[in-house]
Amino acid sequence: MIPLQVDIASILLNGLQQGAIYALLGLGLTIILGTMEFLNLAHGALYLVGAYVGLLVFRETTLTNGLLYSFGVTTIGFDGGFLAALVVVPIVGFGIGLLMERFVAEPFYDRPETDQLLVTFGLALIVEEIIKNVIGGNTFQSIGPQTIFGFNVSQPVALPVVGLFPSWRLFIIVIALVIIAVTWLAIERTDFGLVVQAGTRDSEMVRLLGIKINRSYSLVFALGAALAAFAGLIGASIQTLSPQIGTDRALLPAFLTIVVGGAGSVRGAIAGGMLLGVIVSAMTQTYSQWAQIVLYLFVALMLIVRPEGLFGSGEVGE
Amino acid sequence: MSDDADAVTDGGAVAESESAAASGGSGLASLRERDDFVVIATAAVLVVFPFLLIDVFGAIGDLTGFSIGGYSGLPSLVLIYGIVVIGFNLLLGYTGLLSFGHAAFFGSAAYSAALFSQVVPSPLLMVVVGTLVATLLAWPIGFVSIRRSGVYFAVLTLTFGQALYFYALGPGAWLTNGDNGFSDIAAHGLFFGAIPLEAPLTPLYALNSYTVIYAFTAVMMLIAVWVANRIINSPYGLIFEALGENEERVEFVGLNVFRYKLMAFIISAVFAGVGGTMFVIHEQYIHPTTGLYWIQSGDFVIMTVLGGTGSLVGPVLGAFIFEYVANVISGVSLPGIGPIGSLWRFVLGAVFVFIVWVFPRGVYGAAEDLIGLVTGGGGGDDGSEPAATDGGEAE
Amino acid sequence: MARDTTELSRRDVLKASGTAGAAGLAGLAGCTGGGGGSEYPPIGNYPVEGDEVVFGFNVPQSGSYSQEGADELRGYNLAKKHLNNGGGWVDSYENLSGNGVLGKTVASVEGDTATNPDTARQSAQRMINRDNAIMVSGGSSSAVAIAVQKLCQSEKVQFQCCLTHSNDTTGSECVRYSFREMFNAYMTGQALAPVLAEEYGENLKFYQLYADYSWGQTQQASMKKFFTEVGNWTQIDSVPTPLGTSDYSSYLSDVPSEETDVLVLNHYGLDAANSLPQAIEQGLKQDMEIVVPLYNRLMAEAAADSIEGIFGTADWSWQLSDQYSKTFTEAFRNEYNKVPSYAARLAYSQTVQYAAACQRADTFYPPEVIKQLENHQYSNAGLGAETMRKCDHQAQRDVLVVQGLPSDQQTESKLLRIVNQTSRDKLGYACDAGPAAECSLGPYGGENN
């Protein structure tokens, strides 16, 4: 019915787009895990916060429920457009990351990873409930812009081989890849990055070397949080927002990504995200009923056959 | 009532537990008395539980105007989840393995018992079949997952659970009735249908809160407590605990770490299987979201931690708090604020974080410390901390 | 909103049920002989003692459909208020006095279903066992409605379905103790097909995506049946998407845009709020027409920019101009300062209809109330003449075909326009056909057993 190469091309493109979001999430999670050996189940909550901050900055939203509504607030938001959100969201995420590192993560560095999982699991629950009760459990429209940098992105573009493809999604692929590249460079080419790298390989050693690890910790955590919030903004630009998206769309994919890529591995998070994105997209276009099942079984298989992940040292979190 | 956890966790300062296997025999003898105590105390609580929950709380509710009373059905539900988390705690609290996929055992037992009931509608045989299926499923999943630890273990168990969930919802709907839920459960009464499960236990009006299904569940609970207590106080239990404390040391002693971990995993799945089957007998209904979704696994974690890991009955307390808040407190109206409604999850999350942060030994552990403090008994000895609370980084 | 528990304490009921013996239901069997001198034997939560009667409002307050749940609750509470104090439809129903039901004040208990079938069952169980609810109403998600109505059947407590559109609710999963005012997927197909055949032409090719659960499956089957029969359309393919999918781009990429004339998105609520905008982003609207069989407010709001010109069906709209719709909309607006969604109408209507049936039966005895509702003909629920059919408890009623308004014509309360109110004469199916063929309602219980 449809030529094979069209199928393959659209699978790859869709996979790339989905994978880019997974990669952003995985990247944030993996640097935190790698450097601090801190397991953050509230990573999805950061995605959620990113999405809602994006919503507030992007447009005015009419409320019909929630605490704010019952206090007489009927609209919230700044109507600042997507570019403003693009700037504000990572900054807010960064700030939240700093606070979280200081007040949540730090007391738990020396406690077992089970406690870390549990406390962040509870924290995620609280964040979700706060958003729901304050703003209301409504589902809000996605926050994709009409134009950006003068380009009209509301119309699809005709691509060779694939055919029509939403131009906004192309833009997302580009912007996510840029952010991923920048993060990659920051880790590969800066002093700060060196600490992260060394940390993900052997945090004990870094500490022994007397590097001011605490400040770096804050920065790494904040960077990871900013990446998650950014992923939330990107995700919210193509999908609706509701308080449940943190766990549903972010937390599980993020963990699957780092497990496939190798915990603590930056390269692994990027490659793992892309790989999972392509698998999901390939399965949905062929045997959609089995897409989720195959996704989970693939990750399980990966863990069994190659527990250290694509690029992981297999050391972190073990 | 408060002693039993000591019995469990003291274990003679677990630091020396490498000698556990050897000293198990003599340890057991000295614990014998307390051993019986746990089971007897549990039995006593089980006898008064429905009366307290339904009649006493109900009367308080009527007096104060806050509807805080339980309802017929809630006591059994608490016990069912209690059975699950007693087993879950053997894994999390003692061996230190955090599974995010125990719904797989709970749900698969529930579904297989439900399907089996259409052939043989005997509750007792349903329990056997459901538990058997959960056990058989736990073996391969455990075999694969146990080789990884920490987050890998959590994610592995999660992935198997989720794969089952999506199967039950989608491609497996021919078997499970998918999203419509499975409600053609044909559990007859006990003793070949002679005693219907829904009937009151006695015709006495004062004991109206007691139903046959409650008695059935209570007996299962008692067996679960007894078995878990035996396990904890056996050499096996001490090795489980030692595994949570320091795996390498257990290995140095020459014990097969993998084998014991797998055993702990399977045992916990057996409990989940019994719970899952009892759930389906009690509810006469099962749905993929209840049976298999990862949120259910997460609820097991919350209950266990809330109540207190590392003690036998702590998690049951957690199951009670969880179910009580979810099913009763969520329907209470506060003056000025209105119905609690959906806020209950927020309350639960906040309490959960607080507990993890301040009382790693859960509500039960905190209560124990408090009692210790009041009676001047020296409070909670650190030796009884759950396995997971130290040595994490050393791994 | 707290239930006033002054007169009737649950102890009284327990006392009464003590004599019921081993045959009764756990803790709920009513009294035999003692009490109000009722002429019927106890069943479920009958007889109702004291001067209050309790209704259970079981709605999603958390989870995906909490927004709809909130509107349903508004409808329920408004109905309670009108039943007790008069106002709204109660004033024009000849059986209702605005002075409670059968001389008893209506009290209510609320529960959170969390859009999860088992949580919903627990919540209903609490209402039935502890609060002695004589009637439970709720829904939102057919899975929840089906789960709770099964429970109500076994507890012999009335269930008034609110928002549930799956064929199965009054088809293969139907029960005696439950009644559905809402239409179903089958009727959506019947209502939409002629309108679309006229709008878009005959002999077209259509492609379907459907949410892979009971509602989506029955919905896509109905669409296929009626598109093929009415407009002689041909189906290219029908693809399942897992419930709760949020990114449909892969599925949409697979739609053959050259061949397809009409794309049917059998998604509801949240799912549709994602799939519809994504289909439009993908440019599919340039090549084909898109249809969303069932509209709801959540979806229309969450996809407001994308619904222009999109056809679908709806249960009811506040824009209808008949007397009952206007009265309800006015009362709702006065109370809550906003217009009601159709979920609110369903909640309101199901509560008032139940109360009226009790009055006609002159008892709360469930089998008698059920008989009053069976084959009840009415035209006082805002949709013209309706019949609550006896064989499957499915209301035979009109269905609205609606179309999304362009963004610049939308207002906060008006996102859709009514294209057609399809008469019930053109809809439905015989008792031995369609979904009803699979329905067996089960016993009334009591002496009619």
From TrEMBL, chain A:
The chain crosses the membrane at residues 20-39, 46-69, 81-100, 168-187, 217-238, 250-281, 287-305. One of its GO terms (biological process) is amino acid transport. The keyword Transmembrane applies. Keywords: Amino-acid transport, Cell membrane, Membrane, Transmembrane, Transmembrane helix, Transport. It is found in: Cell membrane. One of its GO terms (molecular function) is transmembrane transporter activity. CDD domains: TM_PBP1_LivH_like (cd06582). It is a multi-pass membrane protein. GO terms for cellular component: plasma membrane. Belongs to the binding-protein-dependent transport system permease family. LivHM subfamily. This is Amino acid/amide ABC transporter membrane protein 1, HAAT family. It comes from Halobaculum gomorrense. The lineage of its organism: Archaea, Methanobacteriati, Methanobacteriota, Stenosarchaea group, Halobacteria.
Automatic annotation (TrEMBL), chain B:
It holds the Pfam family BPD_transp_2. It is found in: Cell membrane. GO terms for molecular function: branched-chain amino acid transmembrane transporter activity. It comes from the Archaea. The chain crosses the membrane at residues 37-60, 72-92, 97-117, 123-144, 151-170, 207-228, 262-281, 301-322, 343-360. One of its GO terms (cellular component) is plasma membrane. Keywords: Cell membrane, Membrane, Transmembrane, Transmembrane helix. It is a multi-pass membrane protein. InterPro entries: ABC_transp_permease, LivM-like. This is Amino acid/amide ABC transporter membrane protein 2, HAAT family. It comes from Halobaculum gomorrense. The lineage of its organism: Archaea, Methanobacteriati, Methanobacteriota, Stenosarchaea group, Halobacteria.
UniProtKB/TrEMBL annotation, chain C:
Keywords: Signal. Pfam families: Peripla_BP_6, TAT_signal. InterPro entries: BCAA_transport (IPR051010), Leu-bd (IPR028081), Peripla_BP_I (IPR028082), TAT_signal (IPR006311), TAT_signal_bac_arc (IPR019546). The keyword Membrane does not apply. Gene3D superfamilies: 3.40.50.2300. SUPFAM superfamilies: Periplasmic binding protein-like I. NCBIfam families: TAT_signal_seq. PANTHER family: LEUCINE-SPECIFIC-BINDING PROTEIN, PERIPLASMIC BINDING PROTEIN OF ABC TRANSPORTER FOR NATURAL AMINO ACIDS. This is Amino acid/amide ABC transporter substrate-binding protein, HAAT family.
